[in-house]
Design brief:
The structure holds two protein chains of two kinds. By secondary structure, chain A is an alpha+beta fold. Helices cover about 20% and strands about 20% of the residues of chain A. Chain A has a two-stranded antiparallel ribbon with strand order 1-8. In chain A, strands 2-3 form a two-stranded antiparallel ribbon. By secondary structure, chain B is an alpha/beta fold. In chain B, about 20% of the residues lie in helices and about 30% in strands. In chain B, strands 1, 2, 3, 4, 5, 6 and 19 form a seven-stranded mixed beta sheet that branches. Classes of the chains: A alpha+beta, B alpha/beta. At the A-B interface, strand 1, strand 2, strand 3, helix 3 and helix 4 of A face helix 8, strand 22, strand 23 and helix 9 of B.
Chain lengths: ~140, ~425
């Protein structure tokens, strides 16, 4: 499997990766409808680290030995042996936040709407990695490992 | 008495440690024969989910920690409803309570812990439970409809979770804590105070510096008299004062025990080929450099996982374990990790910074070593990205150059000094493109 990597030197801090990540995980997958008309406003699953002029985006690294999966008390987090993706099952998650305490990157985000988390799923089931493909400066790239 | 066969790998226990072992081992050795002995009749469930289930947050079928086909896919023979009663290390045999025995190549003891019941006469009555096992769940569920007043003995993590569950059912809840504050071993005085406030605001009755003096009733507890003489009606008594490691098996087999079963960094006991993990074991704490009992879910799973690797011949060490808790009581989110410094154990050589924002009800505290590394921290009310602090603690990073920044809610990798930042993120960013 590969991973998404950031190029901090060419990141402009435009936050479009956040916008498109939110759109990708919205109901309509349409940038206008998602933000204007959906009852639950879409939420991004990555973080833009910022200390101007420095900016770069970070998302779940889908670690080889994920601390979050080890800490998960419910079995909601698992590492898919086929794809290598660290998968989160929101139906099994109880929002204990053990993963928030153990993710070394701080990339498991607390869901502001209900007790639970949101995280990068590498755009599962979609035809493109939204944050990578929509970055206007190619500051996010997908690298095969 | 017959031999139920021999296995390359045998596990005693069926919780987080056992699953960790199976998953670690099977990622290395797909063909070795493997079996598991479990006292309980059910497949692996998460004890940590009991409060969520009883509180009505999840359905019964979500108590299970792994899918139905977990053992089959991992090719593990499961022997439910059997208790291991003896380990004969000389001939590598485990004897079961029905007289049968099994032989093993490598053995993992993941027997867990037993809820500790203080020596108070009457705790053997019918409506007394802990919050530990499926049988507790079934018992408490039967009792609930008739419960109007419940007593929770113990103001620790389990006791408070139990209190929250019962309070949510409209039950009058009385929490008794022997110490002068809640969660005393886990958090500091300020955090205890915040939790106490949250509990009192919701109408839970707290009795600090107090315990049960006497239990009244016949077959069932009907009321209790406190140490200070007050009497409380009681339809349900929950005991949540802690868990004692189950070490009898190991002790009788001549395996070294010191509160828990002592293991090295490879999770191996004093007897080669026998491993232990989880609540029954004493494992390495990287902050104290000592072997300690740390009955925590991640510690059990990871300890089991590392044991599994080593059992299969892939050498790994578990060197990143320490105390850590993610908790929430009445919607107050708390994380704590590392050494818990309190007013009682504070001394001048300790370097501590803390900040309490009364308006937002946000509290942060960090404890540092002389070398400037984080040795403990507590976050209350704002726990986003807490794992970054745990990572800095585990990697023993000198944080003196940016410690004030750590009070920011938005603290992240951007706030670290450049060299350190790119060192920690070397696999995550590409530099030198401009």
């Amino acid at each position: 499997m590969g991973r998404i990597m950031a190029k901090p030197e060419v990141c402009m801090g435009c936050h479009l990766c956040e916008v498109w990540c939110a759109v990708a995980h919205s109901k309509s997958k349409h940038i206008v409808k998602a933000f204007l008309y959906e009852v639950n406003k879409p939420l991004p699953r990555l973080v833009v680290e910022e200390k101007l002029p420095l900016t770069f985006a970070l998302q779940c690294r889908h670690c080889a030995e994920p601390d979050c999966v080890a800490a998960c008390i419910s079995g909601a987090l698992s590492k898919d042996p086929e794809s290598g993706i660290v998968v989160h099952d929101p139906n099994q998650c109880v929002g204990c936040y053990s993963c928030v305490l153990t993710c070394p990157y701080g990339n498991i985000l607390i869901n502001p709407r209900q007790r639970g988390i949101i995280k990068c799923d590498l755009c599962a089931g979609m035809d493109t990695l939204y944050c990578v493909s929509r970055c206007p400066n190619e500051a996010l790239v997908y690298v095969d490992c | 008495m017959s031999n139920m066969g021999g296995y390359d790998y045998l596990i005693i226990g069926n919780s987080a440690g056992a699953v960790g072992c199976i998953e670690g081992l099977r990622s290395v050795d797909k063909s070795g024969t493997m079996a598991l002995v479990s006292e309980e009749e059910c497949r692996v469930y998460s004890r940590a989910l009991i409060p969520y289930y009883l509180g009505g947050h999840i359905a019964r079928d979500r108590l299970y920690y792994r899918p139905l086909d977990f053992y089959d896919r991992a090719h593990v023979g499961v022997f439910n409803g059997h208790r291991a009663v003896k380990i004969d290390t000389a001939v590598r045999m485990v004897k079961l309570d029905d007289g049968n025995s099994m032989s093993y190549g490598k053995l993992l003891i993941a027997a867990g812990g037993k809820p500790f019941y203080p020596p108070i006469p009457g705790l053997d009555k019918k409506n007394v439970y802990s919050f530990h096992s499926m049988s507790d769940v079934q018992g408490i569920e039967k009792e609930l409809p008739g419960v109007r007043s419940a007593v929770v003995l113990g103001g620790g993590v389990i006791g408070l979770m139990a209190a929250e569950v019962l309070h949510g059912k409209g039950i009058r809840v009385h929490v008794l804590e022997l110490a002068d504050r809640l969660l005393a071993p886990v958090v500091d005085e300020t955090t205890s105070q915040l939790v106490e406030n949250a509990l009192r605001e919701t109408g839970v009755d707290l009795y600090l510096n107090n315990t049960i003096g006497q239990i009244h009733g016949g077959e069932r507890v009907e009321s209790i008299t406190l140490k200070d003489g007050r009497t409380i009606p009681c339809d349900l008594l929950i005991v949540g004062v802690g868990v004692a490691p189950r070490v009898e098996l190991a002790e009788h087999a001549g395996i070294q025990v010191n509160r828990g079963i002592v293991v090295d960094k490879k999770m191996q006991t004093s007897v080669p080929g026998i491993f232990a993990c989880g609540d029954c074991a004493s494992t390495y704490n990287f902050l104290t450099d000592a072997v300690q009992n740390m009955p925590l879910w991640p510690n059990a799973y990871l300890g089991g996982r590392v044991a599994g690797y080593n059992m299969a011949g892939a050498e790994r060490e578990y060197t990143l374990g320490t105390q850590m808790n993610a908790m929430h009581f009445f919607d107050v989110n708390i994380v704590s990790a590392g050494i818990n410094v309190t007013e009682a154990n504070q001394n001048d050589s300790l370097d501590i910074i803390k900040n309490y924002d009364a308006e937002k009800k946000v509290y942060r505290k960090f404890v540092f070593s002389k070398e400037g590394t984080i040795t403990g921290f507590i976050l209350v009310g704002q726990i986003d990205r807490a794992g970054i602090f745990l990572n800095l603690m585990r990697r023993k990073v000198d944080v003196r150059g940016f410690r004030k920044e750590m009070f920011k809610n938005s603290f992240g990798y951007a706030d670290l000094p450049e060299t350190l930042r790119w060192q920690l993120l070397q696999d995550d960013v590409i530099l030198g493109v401009v």
